[in-house]
Amino acid sequence: MIKKYAARQETIMLCVIPCSQDIAANRALAIAREQDPDRKRTLGVLTRADVTGKGDEAMIVDLVQEKGMKLKLGYTLVKCRSQEDINNKVTLRQALQDEEHFFRDHKHFSKLPEATTGIPSLAKTLTRQLVDHIKSCLPRLCEAVEEKLAETTSKLGKLNDPVPENKREYLISLLVDYGKDLRAIVEARESRPDAESNSESNKTTLFKETRETFQKYQTAIEDLKPSKDDLEMIDQLIEELRGLELAGFDNYRAFKSIAQDKVSALKRPAMTCLESIEKLVETVYLDLAGVKFVRFATLHRVVAEQVNGMFRKSVEEARNTIETLMEAEHIIYTSDESFREELHKTPQIEVTDEEQGTDAMPAVSFNLGRTEIGVSRRAHVNREVLNFGSSPSAIGSSKNAGSLPSSAARSERSKPSESAKEMLRKLQGYFKIVTHRLIDNVPMAVMRSLFKRFTKDIETKLITHIVNVTSPPEQVDDDDDNLSLTTMTPDVLLEEEEDVATRRAYLVERQSRLKEAGRMLKTFPSRKRPHSDLK
Q1: How far apart, in whole angstroms, are the C-alpha atoms of residue 103 and residue 470?
Q2: Where are the alpha helices (DSSP H) in 448-462?
Q3: How far is the C-alpha of 284 from the C-alpha of 206, rounded, in Å?
Q4: Which residue has the higher pLDDT, 466 or 361?
Q5: What letter would DSSP give residue 1?
Q6: Residue pLDDT, tens place only, 491-533
Q7: Whole-angstrom Cα distance, residue 401 to residue 374?
Q8: Helix 297-329 crosses helix 252-264 at what angle (to 10 degrees)?
Q9: How far apart are CA 50 and CA 444, in angstroms?
Q10: pTM (two decimals)
Q11: Would you call 371 helix, strand, or coil by DSSP?
Q12: H-helix or E-strand spanning residue 45
């Protein structure tokens, strides 16, 4: 306890040491040296000067004259009333007079300056040192008061004012504010709520994280495009599906089968993108509810449950939309003009001897009815981007996976045909069109459901439901869109936790005290102004 107070820079330490003791070994002086190594805040008080041992007087005089252990605030020598004086009922006035006569007539102590002896001198020294110390500490004290005031005001702001009499109107205003704040966050006009940190540097917008997720989705599907690794599979499929047409003619059945299989592999990245955005938005609306309804436990729980129900519907809507988009992409179609334009921009396929002789990719089988054709999978598909990579069934089914071809088989492999290379070029051109469509359509579908539709439901259905809940029972509509909270009333929803009112009263009183302390410090004479004034 002693060290706790002695360590504070605002504390002046009084080391009271009887002259009859060994001063060098005094415990109080040892603590002072430990907590105030520069000895700027320590004042030595030597008591019971009348019982100083014979031969020790010179040492006491040297100590007071700072010839021994020096203290910046110095030493003061006093003579207190003895127990005999107290028993004889010697008054303080008489004791002060006796002390004055003692120091004036003492053989050794009379040589000391008057300002260093006697209780009156000690009182003057303490007053002067205390005032000077307060002046030096004022800037730090003012800053500390400002910090405490800001902290108290922040805590008080989270509790808000007491609930007004018109609870129904107040309840609706809270929910309206929640809907507006959620929309502002979704539209990137406000930062995401952060319950753990109030630092501006830690805040970020929802759309910044959303864009990063969409960019990873784009990278993931672009990594699934047809490549030279598919040439062998294309050659085999062309041969398997070849009819009466002569060599070199395009086989549209092969093109369609490969294109549809490649499109199937794009579904998993789209769903993963949706799941990532779902987690982001869910965190936002739950965190915001925790901030807005922190003092109403029942309302917080009810709002979280109902908003979560609305959000699940929005997520399901987005999932169905993506399913529809992927189903539509299985129809291999684009306008002739778009295909010709993209094909014109797609370079001819050239296979070097090094590329032809290297194949470290495992083979999987391409199931086409009862025909199974070995398919080489791309080795460089990025599977670390949000786990957006295709599943083992990216091409064909994983249960049909084949084994790695032998080195002998790879060495005997013939060069890809010109038909295979030309089909690969067309597949790449068409895949570019597909990815362009999905890169825009999937994020738009996600934002439509999880952003626009969801926030609209919060601002309309939730508010309407609260109005119905707080109305008389006969006015409550049993429509499926309404939420089953008819037993909840404003009194129940706006019931504060037991200690909220107590904490609010304490914080209001503390805020008042801190403001008064700030005003008093501002009027204290000869002080340095702090970095910012207290309002």
Answers
A1: 85
A2: 454-457
A3: 8
A4: 466
A5: -
A6: 888 887 667 777 878 888 888 898 888 888 777 665 444 444 4
A7: 9
A8: 170
A9: 94
A10: 0.57
A11: strand
A12: strand 42-47
